[in-house]
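Record 1 of the preview.
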Amino acid sequence: MMAHQGVSGAQCRNFAGNYKILFTLFLIGAFSFNYLTKLHKYYLFFRWLISFLAMRKLLSYSRIVFLTLNNISPD
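->
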């Protein structure tokens, strides 16, 4: 900003301060957004893992029940 355009040094410094604040807020927002997307990916992965383990447990239980029912002879 040039002085002959009618902008004083105080205004220039004020603009620089506001710019720093805005840039800091932007950086915080960008990092938090990145963190949240990573968290969302981890959340999806853990949800899939837990459901997968639960299904395996259910299948193993049903297999145990099926085998025990098959082993019971009717006579």
